[in-house]
Specification:
Shape of chain A: globular
CATH class of the largest domain in chain B: Alpha Beta
CATH superfamily of the largest domain in chain A: ANL, N-terminal domain
CATH topology of the largest domain in chain A: Rossmann fold
CATH class of the largest domain in chain A: Alpha Beta
CATH superfamily of the largest domain in chain B: P-loop containing nucleotide triphosphate hydrolases
Strand order of the largest sheet of chain B: 8-9-10-5-11-12
Shape of chain B: globular
Radius of gyration of chain B: 19 Å
Radius of gyration of chain A: 26 Å
Distance between the termini of chain B: 31 Å
Helix content of chain B: 25-40%
Number of strands of chain B: 12
Oligomer: heterodimer
Number of strands of chain A: 28
Distance between the termini of chain A: 68 Å
Structural class of chain B: alpha/beta
Number of domains of chain B: 2
Strand order of the largest sheet of chain A: 4-3-5-6-7
CATH architecture of the largest domain in chain B: 3-Layer(aba) Sandwich
CATH topology of the largest domain in chain B: Rossmann fold
Helix content of chain A: 25-40%
Largest sheet of chain B: 6 strands, mixed
Chain lengths: 657, 272
Amino acid sequence: MAPEKTPAGELCSVPALLARNARVHGASTAYREKEFGIWQSWTWIAAAEEIRAMALGFLALGLERGDFVAIIGRNRPAHYWSMIAAQMCGAIPVPLYQDAAADEMAYVLEHCGARFVVCGDQEQVDKVLEVHDRAPAIEQVLYNDKRGLRKYDHTNLNWLHDIQAEGRAAHTRLETELDARIAELTYDHTCVMLYTSGTTGKPKGVVLSNRNIIETAKASSAFDHLTDKDEVLAYLPMAWVGDFIFSIGQAMWTGFCVNCPESAETMMTDLREIGPTYYFAPPRVFEGQLTNVMIRMEDAGRFKKRLFDHYMAVARRVGPDILDGKPVSGMDRFRYWLGDKFVYGPLKNTLGFSNVRVGYTAGEAIGPEIFDFYRSLGINLKQLYGQTEAGVFITQQPDGQVRSDTVGVPSPGVEVRIADNGEVFYRSPGVFVEYYKNPESTASTKDAEGWVATGDAGFFEEGTGHLRIIDRAKDVGKMADGSLFAPKYVENKLKFYPDILEAVVFGSGRDTCTAFINIDLTAVGNWAERNNIAYASYQELAGHPRVLDTIQSHIEEVNRSVAEDPMLSGCQVHRFLILHKELDADDGELTRTRKVRRNIIAEKFDDLINALYNGSETVFTETEVTYEDGRKGSIKATLTIRDAAVSEPQHKRMAAE
Amino acid sequence: MKDMSEGYTTADGRKIGGTMMEMKNITLRFGGVVAIKDISFDIREGEIRAIIGPNGAGKSSMLNVISGFYIPSEGEVWFHGSKRPQMKPYQVAQQGIARTFQNIALFKGMSTLDNMMTGRMTRMKSSMAQQAMWWGKAQKEESEHREAVEKIIDFLEIQAIRKTPVGRLPYGLQKRVELGRALAAEPKLLLLDEPMAGMNVEEKEDMSRFILDVNDEFGTTIALIEHDMGVVMDLSDRVVVMDYGKKIGDGTPDEVRNNQDVIDAYLGVSHD
């Protein structure tokens, strides 16, 4: 069944895999979506028919080979189908971030020159129509949810279901053409184009071929023994490469079922109802869930709280070892078994993790406590390291070798090497073809032999062969006295505290380091409630002296731990302030995947950074904010700046003795 | 005023039909107090009709007359071309009139879903015994009603609170659930008693959008009472203005805005 390098016409494209699945797994469920309170489902045969009708409809509307089809919407079966339907017509799907503002969308739509745009609902249609004059190539707009769109001019606007009906009606006329186009697809045809979120500058269109996607899906499915019996919940942005690999690549390769939640707000309920066996989430989702559990346990009765504390201690002690198959005494196994009956089992059920066989986290570093919490419950949570340019996988952790501070060993088929300056390079069948319309960037990222620069600095740990990532290579700098400056390293340590949502550390070329802190409203708000601290707004809570005290103690603790590292002891935070607003992608401070855009923040809050370094105790500032609908406003605040105690670096102490 | 007996077209191009409900010379007395004095106006098929006025003008009383809760002391209510006899409120509901209340009147301990299911009451055909025993017609019927309610849940975007007891919901969401319960009855005429009272700007914007969408998607005729003038003028096709139980203005928002009596009632006028 497994295809060799390039078996012509056979299993070398997503449409070909779909046909295979309809043949082999025909009657099993391919897609589920919760709608009207019920899980609606489609078998592979039904899905294949829907997708084919959509592709015929696209042909009827005049979709050509090589056209780009933009898809903007939340995870819904029809949106996944439209990507495959586009591929069937020889076109290239380009999923976009649905929460992007119209301006950001305009750039991508213009850059790829999309002729067709598939929108989830009225909100997305409005954005597309708004930027139409900046992306004049757009000819047809299609939408999935009818609501509110009845009175729009429908000259070039169509309901996706109408298009399918048209396709079905015209099948005798168009079928030959469609089959010919499907048969043309090879391993080297473009499968999808994904735009990078762009921590610096404009997003770049990463072109991934069928070879990239299918080879990656094949290798990674084998790595984790995925089968057609697995279940995933598709809830991460469709524009993100991970979702494409999981919900299309791996789902098509193995034939497992993709479940789409009812809405973003019901995600947690839907997760519990589905009970996925294979689960992926960025660290912030795991963090959020753990924070919720802890908050609810704080409010629980005394007996429950004691039971929870007791058995969680047992789990922390022996849980990870049991998961890794290491020797554990019979008594401890019995205790853990009891704990599973009383605490872990019900807790996993509430979280929706009862059936999880393989769970992954990636994108950011995950706090060791958070990681260990899930591992100790018996959830096989692992880390992977990847990039859009790699078709996700660069390294991942094999079962039984899981640790919170490494990102694992090179994935099957991937070669990794570390350059002299510490930057990580890789080469694999998943390596992207090019950046669309951007040969300079392609050349500077990928060399002639196919080695790709990650832009991350890291090293292989001696003994285990696991990769450890320190920071973005370009963010790693020198301080005034020449010592190493790695902001991410400190920020991650800070972010592991539930109170701290985001941290930005400055200090490149300076004598000392300083930091901006964003508090986590859920955690700090709950703390405020329990301590009878009244507050009217985020801003007020962020400026509360007792909140400042708590954050200061966290920073001092982090300083102590940073001081122990001989290389990075210069990165201790001397002064900090708590920002009056949450860093937000709408204001350009974060990327859509919630990564900090350091330069933009430094530029925007220039006055605050000055205040951190000129010794003042308070600073007045006015910041422009963008609302979700694109309107602008401003907030004013006077922020308090605090000094944090720093520790004497350990190695200096030793040298002095 | 132009003749509109055959319906008219609104500024945004919606077709408004003929008369659905007509109030003829309604007077309502409570003992010696005259709450409504000789008021006549009509509500047309498919329009959004607002009733405005200062506090104590008799707006809620008027809505209660329409919903059959109060029986007018004098005057007649005509509905779909025939005079409405004296009716109990549930009979009025069966005629296709549903309402929400100024002070939310939901069952606080019940979930959003259950509250909305009660809105289907007038449409249930199986007997109480059948429903209690989950037997016969009741089974099939309940899934049909559940389906109708789920469509409204989807429409109002309240999937996430489907199973939450409404007493635990914030005020704005409770208002939305109440609207949902009224919609569950699939009314022809929907009465909204201060749907935006006590809401912040964002909640008001949401609610306005839902009111417009209800009118647009389901073709429901809407009569509403509201204090927020901005909202009234934006939403409604025609406005009745009441003051001290009397009608002092009736027409499009623009006409009403320029009506001297209305300006006097709202801004006050000196009597010298």
